[in-house]
Specification:
single chain, mainly beta, nine-stranded mixed sheet, two-stranded antiparallel sheet, 1 helix, 11 strands
Length: about 130
């Protein structure tokens, strides 16, 4: 795996596939909360917290899938392939159909690290 999570810090190798599993807990019952069909979850990554446009954004059914008692945020290699190495900011926000809004993961660091191996053909490759 080319990623790790330390607290709210996500570290990943540029261009790798990543599945981030997140359990949202209902604060009143302590039970896992899985967003319903009309609810929305946003996973947003920006270069700085003040930028208007995200460099990555995933939503339910568009990169975020519901599991039995959690959600999975899926990052494809293309999501980070063109990002510069460095430190970004991210958060995860839940908006229910009733309008209740909760930043379930407050802003944290999203660190894109260097890669050595890429899938691009090299001029030094030779035929067998």
């Amino acid at each position: 795996m080319g990623f790790s999570i330390f607290g709210s810090r996500i570290i990943l190798t540029r261009g790798d596939s990543v599945e981030l599993v997140l359990t949202i807990t209902n604060p009143q019952t302590g039970e896992p909360f899985v967003p319903g069909g009309e609810d929305q979850v946003y996973f947003t990554v920006k270069k700085t917290i003040h930028d208007r446009e995200p460099v990555i954004q995933k939503t339910l059914d568009h990169g975020i899938v519901r599991n039995e008692d959690s959600i999975s945020i899926l990052l494809d290699p293309a999501d980070t392939a063109d990002l510069s190495y460095g430190i970004y900011k991210y958060d995860v926000e839940l908006v229910t159909v009733s309008g209740y809004t909760d930043t379930v993961v407050p802003p944290g660091l999203f660190i894109v690290t260097e890669e050595v191996t890429t899938h691009e053909p090299s001029a030094r490759q030779t035929e067998p």
